[in-house]
Structure formats: structure tokens, C-alpha cells
Amino acid sequence: MFFTCGPNEAMVVSGFCRSPPVMVAGGRVFVLPCIQQIQRISLNTLTLNVKSEKVYTRHGVPISVTGIAQVKIQGQNKEMLAAACQMFLGKTEAEIAHIALETLEGHQRAIMAHMTVEEIYKDRQKFSEQVFKVASSDLVNMGISVVSYTLKDIHDDQDYLHSLGKARTAQVQKDARIGEAEAKRDAGIREAKAKQEKVSAQYLSEIEMAKAQRDYELKKAAYDIEVNTRRAQADLAYQLQVAKTKQQIEEQRVQVQVVERAQQVAVQEQEIARREKELEARVRKPAEAERYKLERLAAAEK
């Protein structure tokens, strides 16, 4: 007949034709009644409260430590499951948890004995890692894997930890005061530096503005000189052109006057010639004719 189990359980079938026994974690298996036997083993995760009371540390100070461990039988690893079956088959979860707890507590005490109170108190992570490492290497031979281990509590009956805490508190307060003073000092330095940088930046800005103003004024002066030069050149050219134009106009006027005078002279000469002709026609020729007449008359009277 068939038997089944959940993922948190393993079945071991032994007997007829089952040598070595068959182990099934989370599944089903066929079992022949009467000639074969089936047994179950839990794969549940077990939470262990690992207490070590009044253990003397390396410097002889007794303290008590409580750790929390999570352990389980590893069903997916056939070798570890076989080892667990050899160790715990037929035992209850409580019995398995007790064996694992005793093993963990022994390793926890051993680690405590090799460390000082200060090391355990200040570096809990290191302590937890050492217990986890040592216990895991031992429990794996039993088929049990340590899922996690965490240091839960440290205390003592002689106020050693309280005194250590006071000293630590005083040191922390001292460090805080020193840190606050250093922070104020650094803040003052940063503030002074910031002010200095601000003033320097302001001076640099003013210098740059002055340089820009100077460059602007120099360029403007150069532009003004160039503009004034061009304007003076244009004015001079204009005046020269005006003078040339006036000269040309005067020359043309003189030429016109010369022409007019020449024309007047020609007209006068023509007038003189006309008058001479008119005089000759009106005066000289009649006079010559009269003279000639008189000469002829005189000659005739002779």
C-alpha cells in the first residue's frame, strides 16, 4: 500500500528488499505490509533557546548568555538525512531538539570561555558567527543544519556589564562632547572660510566688473576716435568738395564773363564798323563828291 508525507517530513522504509532502507522526503512510497516497516522523521525547523548560565569568560568574569538558534534536519541532502535517521529515527521532536540544544549550549559555553566580556558585549556579531560556525560543523555530522543563530541577551550578577555600560556611556558622552566641540569648531572654520570665499568672490567680481568697465571705456574711446576721425575726414572731404565746386563755379562764371566780354567787344566792333560805314556813306562820300565838284568848277573857271 502507498504512504505519503508532506514537505516537512521524511519516511524511511526498511525490511524485505529494502537494504539499505529507502528514504523519501516529501512524497509517497509503496510499502508491503507485514514484511516492510515505515517510520517517519520530522523535518520541521526547531527554535532553540540556548542558555548558558554563569560561564567564566577569559578574564574570569562570570556572565550569562542567551542565544536563539533555528535548526532542522536537512531532508534534501541524502547523506545528512541518512545520518539524521541513524541518530534520531524513532525519537520525538522534543528529544531531537534537546540533543541539538545540548550541543549548541556546549559550543556556546566554549566560545564564551575563550572571549572577554568586552569582546562579547561590544562585538555580538563576531560571537554569533563563531558559535554558528563551530556548532554547524558539529551538528552537520548528526544530519542537522543550523539555519541561524542570534545572541539575544547578556547579563551578569555582579553589575560588571552595568559598570561597563556606565564607562561606555561616559565615553560616549565624552566623545559626543568632543564631537560637538569639533563640529562647532569645524562649523566656525567652514563659516569663516565661506565668508572669506564670499569676500574673495566679491572682490574678484568687482575686479572683473572694473576690467569690463575699463575694456568698455577703452573700446568706446577707440570707437569714438575712429568715428571722430571718419567724421573729420568726411567734413574735410565735404569742405574740399565744396571748395572744388565753388572753384569750378567761379571758373565757369569767369569763362562766361570772358565770353560775354568777347561778345560785347565783337558787338562794339561791329557797331563801330557800322557807324564808320554809315559815316562814310553820310559824310565822307558827299564831302568828297562836293570837293570833287568844287575842284571841277575851279578848274573850269580857269
UniProtKB/TrEMBL annotation:
Pfam families referenced in this protein's UniProt entry, alphabetically: Band_7 (PF01145)
Name this polypeptide is given: Flotillin
Annotated Band domain residues: 84-266
Protein family according to the UniProt entry: Belongs to the band 7/mec-2 family. Flotillin subfamily.
Subunit structure, as described in the record: Heterooligomeric complex of flotillin-1 and flotillin-2 and caveolin-1 and caveolin-2. Interacts with ECPAS.
Localization per record: Membrane; Endosome
Principal place of residence: membrane
Keywords assigned: Endosome, Membrane
Organism from which the protein derives: Sus scrofa (Pig)
One cellular-component annotation, GO: membrane
UniProt entry tagged with the keyword Membrane: yes
Domain of life: Eukaryota
